[in-house]
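[Help] Beginner question about ligand-bound structures

Sorry if this is basic. My supervisor gave me a protein sequence and a SMILES string for zinc ion and asked me to "get the holo structure". I don't really know what that means in practice or what format the answer should be in. Inputs are pasted below exactly as I got them.
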Amino acid sequence: MPAVRPAPVLPEASLVAGVSTPVEDPYYPGTSNPEVDALHYGLDLDWDGRTLRGVTQLTFRAARDTTTIRLALARNLAVTSATLDGRAVSARRPGNDVVFATGALAQGSRHVLVIRYVGRPGPVKAPSGRPDMTEGLGWNRSPAGNVYTFQEPYGAFTWYPVHDHPSDKARYDATVRVPRGQVGVFNGSLTKTESLRGKTVTRWHLDRPAASYLTTIAIGAYKHSAVRMPDGKPFTIWLLPAHEKLRPAIAKEALRSYSWLLKKAGPYPFASSGVVVVEGASAMETQTMITAGYGIMQTELNPVLLHELAHQWYGNSVGPIDWLAVWLNEGWATRMQQDYEDPQGAMFDAQALDTMCRWSRVIAGPAGRYDPKRFADDNVYICPAGMLTELRDKVGVAAYDAIAQAWPVEHRDRTVNRATFLAWLNEKTGQDQSDLLRRWLD
Ligand SMILES: [Zn+2]
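Answer (accepted):
No worries, everyone starts somewhere. Holo just means with the ligand present. The predicted complex, written as structure tokens, is below.
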């Protein structure tokens, strides 16, 4: 087990930044738990190549009066002990949940839950028809023994106990202990690397609150380098030895994409950015540290890096309150990607997107109420991108660009839904846009 260390004293501002209003998810209801508002996760993850031993120190706020706290944790991870505010608490394990008998907790009260667990993690099935999601969600171990994760819409629960829902953003600090010769990569900034008892130990700090689906971990013989972006912030590239030849191309494309987004989307919302290249099939906008499959980086570096970087503004800094609103993430990122790829607007005009949107609806339903078994299908990308294109044609490029920049700035670190977006857009444009949304989303 990882050594027991006294709980770090968290700065008040760090905890306040993690305050959210958790909601029940209308699409994947088992994943949300509105009685808990996670403020900060202190993760300690010890990996020996097969077994994960973890300690999670969760600082949370009771979002309502309650006598139990339910978190998600994969059933193949056994809870070995748990304390609430220093006192032992018992835990039940229904399915992939863990329910702690906390005794009466008053709404608004703040507590620290420390959970120790151990097991052999693995992925869970994705509610999706996408070919790049067949390997499953959450913790994946490649044939070579390297570890990576993809976990949208859920899957963080395959490696730590978590309120695994986007309505509950929280701050994160993580310590990752892996066999010597390997490195554990997490979100945020690497604050320390050391050798301890035959292991490489890395410590990570995330500067703004994040939703759990935007956390990432990758373990392997990683080497890193950093590129300075035009705003002075670092973009760090983490590569396995077999993928090393990608480094110059990624460095060049990162600078190009990031510079373009600074002009188009406005100031970058976090302290750092980067990419960890893994052996998986997909790519994901994990907060400040994009997780990208080697195959995709080889064949579609441009525009995939731009797309995942764009999500740092649209989806990460301002995020969806539930999975009904995933189109808000993908609409903006797709429209940005289309502007980047096709600055003259010849390929992706409103008419072309309308045709593509109609086809995507046949397969996966309307973007605003998609088939829940077809998570992240083409509909939630193309249809809202078409809506934004029509908006741009209506208000003009200058007004559209101002709207695109104001949206993440005015909703920084917050969670939003269709109603929030519509009310805000009506105010910004001075017109009722409900018909625009209805036509593209319903
Ligand atoms: Zn995306």
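A couple of things worth pointing out: Confidence is low (pLDDT under 50) at residues 1-6. The domain at 319-441 is CATH 1.10.390.10 (Neutral Protease; domain 2). Feel free to follow up in the thread.
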